[in-house]
Amino acid sequence: NTRVLLAERPVNRAPVESDFRVERGAMPEPGEGEVLIRNLFLSLDPYMRGRMSAAKSYAEPVAIGGVMAGEAVGRVVSSRHPGCQPGDLVLAHTGWQEYAAVPGERVTKVDPDLAQPSHYLGVLGMPGMTAYCALLYLGEPQPGQTVLVSAASGAVGQVVGQIAKIRGCRVVGVAGSDEKVAYVRDELGFDAALNYKKPDGSPKDFEALSQEIAALCPDGINIYFDNVGGLVHDAALANIAQFGRIIVCGTISVYNELEKQDIGRRWMRQLLVKRARMEGFLVFDHAHRTEEFRQTMAAWLREGRIVFREDVAEGIEAAPRAFIGMLSGANRGKQLVRTGQE
Ligand code: NDP
Hints:
The chain is α/β, with parallel strands linked by helices and 342 residues long.
């Protein structure tokens, strides 16, 4: 059983491969009430950067020497829990490893007829549900409104934009490369998109970005779906419409500065002048909407109204590199790792 452990905490810097240790361990033995799972796909998500840090957050950090936290889809190999049978396809918090023994009551069975297994980690899983609940329940989008979404081509962003289109909104995406901009505009049907980086890869300055957003959102932004914080957040807030809403879903642009104080100058005057509302979002608060989300999203997928791009790295050993790449924008869609073949 190959697994990935946390070797070192990156403090106020980007993670590097030596912060992880890939190790071959013994095959886990399921105890009473547990199931042994062979993982097929492991999900790599930005929140895991937070788990590498000891800074206070909504969840406990991974211990040094502990298996990196993460969700996976896999097959039950053997079961000591009455609710699971060998061969069942399940979703579980197994961590970054090929096999895991997990309590049966914490395993969710997934229906392969509804969607391909990997989708349960993306469009039909936590990122898709984040997009769905945050946009619809916090954003309350109305037809004709303008929605701006950052990290627009990523796991959450690509779904946000497509749901906003279904709801009759005008959708503008912000992403970090011309290729990603073309993807959301030409393949996902966003009305417009822009690259927040210059051709040399460095971020544009605030004025330039703010003006570009203004040109693409001439009536202002009614809903800003913020996946990134920082520069793009400031430039979006400068263009917020009256009674606009800012959904703070992620702040990935500062995930390498978690040990610093989250204080400083903010555009609060802009909130006041526009009577805008800014609200933090956490997907766990919406657990009661899981079934509604799954059924609605599965129908949209079946009808071809939502499409979803995945970026699959091969083999558990590739997880640290793929994770580091995803944090800096190397991913093309939802980042996954294939940890086993069917
Ligand atoms: P993505 O698939 O979007 O991957 C992360 C992307 O972030 C990168 O591809 C990159 O895209 C972008 N990015 C990285 N650094 C910066 C930067 N400095 N400025 C702007 N963009 C940057 O990840 P997810 O869709 O899984 O997650 C998106 C966000 O949503 C994250 O912040 C995550 O923490 C958050 N999230 C929050 C949840 C909640 O419950 N609150 C649940 C799930 C996700 P690009 O090339 O465009 O820069």
